[in-house]
Design goal:
The protein is mainly alpha-helical. It contains 6 helices and no strands. The longest helix is centred in the N-terminal third of the chain and has 45 residues.
Length: 187
């Protein structure tokens, strides 16, 4: 059963990846670059300080930095545990893919999906009662993670598991932040 799931995962990636075309390649290369999302991150940082001030906002900012670092390192731990080859390095399918970049690290789980979902989940939970459009922040991890399929560097299971782990990290860190903020700033 596990082998069947892996084969379906590969087939689904081949299908999704081959929907791409050269005219869309620059767009998805732009989307997959973390630095190009800086305006979103700066907006969230602005909202943090606007709503909390310097002291509580600084604490939340450092907490988010810690969460992102934790998410990144937890993803690396999962990768070295499972050692799943990236699609672009998997000789059974790489000749069937449109591959625009060639990372060499392991595939499972997607760091893009994990960290972007954790960040978005935390931001959504924190700001959902203040800004009714905050739900749209989930567009970020969806298209960010899809870019990895388009580029042929992750399998769908990598993305789904990364988003799941990221959701858990985001919710956990949100609850931890609430607890710590109450204890630290109880006055």
């Amino acid at each position: 059963m596990f082998e069947t799931l892996i084969q379906k995962d590969k087939q689904f990636l081949i299908y999704l990846n081959n929907l791409g075309s050269e005219q869309w390649d620059p767009f998805w290369l732009f989307i997959t670059n973390q630095l190009n999302w800086a305006p979103l991150f700066l907006l969230i940082i602005f909202l943090i300080f606007k709503n909390l001030g310097w002291k509580k906002g600084g604490f939340l900012f450092l907490f988010l930095v810690f969460m992102v670092a934790f998410s990144d390192q937890f993803t690396n731990l999962i990768r070295v545990t499972f050692e799943r080859l990236r699609p672009n390095n998997d000789t059974s399918i790489n000749h069937l893919l449109r591959t625009l970049i060639r990372p060499q690290s392991y595939s499972f789980t997607s760091g893009h999906a994990t960290t972007s979902t954790a960040f978005s989940m935390f931001a959504y939970l924190f700001f959902k009662d203040k800004y009714k459009y905050m739900k749209f922040i989930f567009i970020f991890p969806i298209i960010f993670a899809y870019s990895r399929l388009y580029l042929g560097v992750h399998f769908p299971i990598d993305i789904i598991s990364g988003a799941t782990v990221g959701s858990i990290i985001g919710v956990t860190f949100y609850k931890l932040h609430k607890l710590l903020q109450r204890k630290i700033f109880a006055s």
